[in-house]
Design a protein that fits this description.
Layout: H1 2-19, E1 30-33, E2 42-45, E3 52-53, E4 64-67, E5 71-78, E6 82-88, E7 93-94, E8 107-109
Antiparallel strand pairs: 1-2, 1-4, 3-8, 4-7, 5-6, 5-8
Bound molecules: calcium ion.
């Protein structure tokens, strides 16, 4: 019976972790959302991750973002020589970004 309770607890913990990614955003992250107003699919990046291509759900499809670290949004025009960039500063946020550079984002990096 005790073993069963422990297993159930582990499963509950695992599903909580999976269903609440936005709440897991830590300090120093830049979090992006597929929808406006911080809704939809979300993904958080940290400068320690280095250069990262954004996940498919957010590729050319960032509806909003919040930054608590500096970083750089990248739109590749021709890999690896031609890119368009936007500097992001800690404290930056956009509730609506898909009508701007959010509609072009391919990757995030610590510096432009
Ligand atoms: Ca792009």
């Amino acid at each position: 019976m005790i073993r069963y309770a422990t297993l159930a607890g582990l499963i509950a913990f695992a599903s909580l972790t999976v269903t609440a990614p936005a709440a897991q955003a830590g300090p120093g992250d830049i979090c992006m959302f597929s929808g406006r107003d911080y809704r939809g699919s979300s993904w958080c990046w940290n400068p320690g991750n280095g250069y990262v291509d954004v996940p498919p759900a957010l590729h050319d499809n960032v509806g909003s973002f919040r930054a608590t670290s500096d970083g750089c949004f990248i739109n590749w025009i021709e890999v690896p020589s031609k890119k368009e960039t936007r500097v992001v500063r800690s404290g930056d946020f956009r509730k609506v970004y898909d009508d701007d550079f959010g509609g072009k984002i391919d990757a995030v990096a610590p510096k432009c």
